[in-house]
Amino acid sequence: xxxxxWFTMILVFPLIQCTSSKxxxxxxxxxxxxxxxxxxxxxxxxxxxxxxxxIQSGDPEQEKLAQYFKDLVQPATGFxxxxxxxxxxxxxNRGIVFMIKDPEVYRKEAYQLTVRKNxxxxxxxxxxxxxxxxxxxxxxxxxxxESSQKVADLKWTIPMIDITDYPRFPWRGMHLDVSRHFxxxxxxxxxxxxxxxxxxxxxxxxxxDDQGWRIEIEKYPKLTEVGAWRVxxxxxxxxxxxxxxxxxxxxxxxxxTKEDIRDIVAYASDRxxxxxxxxxxxxxxxxxxxxxxxxxxxxxPFTVPPGGVWPIxxxxxxxxxxxxxxxxxxxxxVMDLFPGAYVHIGGDExxxxxxxxxxxxxxxxxEEGLANENELQSYFIRRIEKFLVAHDxxxxxxxxxxxxxxxxxATVMSWRGMAGGIEAARMDHDVVMTPGSHCYFDHYxxxxxxxxxxxxxxxxxxxVYSFEPVPAELNDHxxxxxxxxxxxxxxxYVTVGSQAEYMVLPRMTALSEVVWSPAANRxxxxxxxxxxxxxxxxxxxxxxxxxxxxxxxxxARYDQEKNAVVVTLSSEQPDPVILYTLDGTDPTPESxxxxxxxxxxxxxxxxxxxxxxxxxxxxxxxxxxxxHLASGKQVGYVRHFSNKYDAGGxxxxxxxxxxxxxxxxxxxQGFEGDDMEVVIDLGESRSVSKISVGFLQRNPSWIFFPExxxxxxxxxxxxxxxxxxxxxxVPDSEAGTLVKNFQIRADKQSARYVKVRARNMxxxxxxxxxxxxxxxxxxxxxxxx
Length: 785
What we know:
With 785 residues, this protein is an alpha/beta fold. The protein has four domains: 6-165, Chitobiase, domain 2 (2-Layer Sandwich); 171-497, Alpha-Beta Barrel (TIM Barrel); 549-625, Immunoglobulin-like, CATH 2.60.40; 634-784, Galactose-binding domain-like (Jelly Rolls), CATH 2.60.120. It is 23% helix and 29% strand. The strands form eight sheets. Strands 1-2-8-6-7-5-3-4 form an eight-stranded mixed beta sheet. Strand 6 (111-115) and strand 7 form a beta hairpin. Helix 8 crosses helix 11 (373-390). The longest helix is centred in the first third of the chain and has 18 residues, at 60-77.
């Protein structure tokens, strides 16, 4: 059984003022995101069947909020709370009191929450502030309040407390890509519930991309009749799927009717979540061009791709007036469905190859005096922005919309790092920060060998929590243009809702504190402790979440004096209890407890895990520590590795631990566009019969297996005898992340020096997105036996 922490909420404490998240442990109140200011005092309010909810007369928003609170607590408590109205000037002195437009509360989205023995008062200047106060009450109640079934024999207590709270940023967003895989309406509502629970307020709905058009447009019915469906290639890796063949029937997909969207928009509005729809242009348009090829440069034909496409060459024709009429018609229907201020138009990853060849586009460039195709894209975006502004909307796009010149009132969403956001802010444009380094939740969050298939990268819970949306390079005026941040969930490898939840939880919890709480209040160790109380709530709500933050990281170094490998174990968790074994068995609560680095003088399988409460949390880490003739020996580099991927230096290839399927785990040594060639000095002549070396391939990241690996030995370091070459038998187009050992055996031979050379293919192959660019080889652990 997992530990439950609800009992801490009814303990008696002296008066304590909490002005930072670090203080909140002392208050025994575990709220996330951390409030701006909190003072806890002795005693508690008890919610019971006789508790009344008081709302101000004549306020329909408060009526909806009162109903929301009733519906929230009724299943677990069994209470059907009565709602009463008061005149708005003299609040009742008992029950739960809603009060809006209070002059003391002046910040946007702010609230004040006061809990006394007989009364709970929620004050806000706006209804959304009351909603956030309700979310705080939710976390002050025992976790069992999230249960869908009545909980017997439990007092529903709220600690006596004063909270003053407001968000740091106005844009606190979460994105979901429904083009790669369609998610039903019920899950979209569930995703909005996750957003609202975390006091976030933006749902960026990626409705359109190459692989599917998901929104009904009445004027152009083929967008959903054709563009919403593709052939099913679910048995192949996303990046290696064969296009639709003649005679094949597209059956995989789906779309949202206008009725669906209106229902979802209303649902989000009731939770004070604004939906920002994304309609991609000028590229990522294969699904729409499959339906209406006349708006392309070539006229088609096109099919909806069943998997990855690169480069993104399918593009709307910027030279045809009919293209803009088509898009304006679509956007008109989109704006009718979504009342929010922003419409996202994408603008990313547009290859201009078709524009370069298109006579209509070239004529447009000449007529408009445009110097190049980047300026043509800027022209395209400016025309769309002018249309949106005329309808009282604002354009937002990925940071590529900076190329060729930024539209006058555009907001930039900076995803390729922070540079685009910095540039836009210095031009007095608003910015939402969403760099791939911290905010792409399609990345792995723990050791890939223990995680579901993901796009790549490595973004842990702690890394998300470390994110600072305001770059230090900006002055105060420029920084005022940073609206906030959001996380993005692209779904190439996320096919169902439960997997989407797993990818965002609890990383969105970390981001919610980044965008809500004052920067000075953030404290990783305190957050890591507080979030443990949320896991119980997630389980009761049926939300699938990752325990990747409990993953044990293993490190190793060779100790020359001890002639042994020293192994270190660590975790993101503060003060973790790490259990480990050396015999290949899974750790149990009775296993050895790690407290200091330990020494291995022989090959062993190390398994380790962190305890959470009284049981193992997360996945078990597993590493083979290989002690062999070359362990810790001097490695000479004939060709030097890249400083971008040095894996810790010259002992990385003989430290006893091989890299994982995560190419950025710190164990893989990279060689860019060049062969790998190293010579290992064993220190003295030894009898050698086997040499092996591990390589990694991940072709989307330009990493390929070597063409061949040659093995040689020598007694004097000058004259080498080649044992042979092992050829690669894996195609460079093979998708996924692959690890392969190249090895060679021979009769025992005396040797002091071992040379290993791996032939880099040099440049990415013609079929690759980076064709002609420098190819990488990634190598780790040369084993000599």
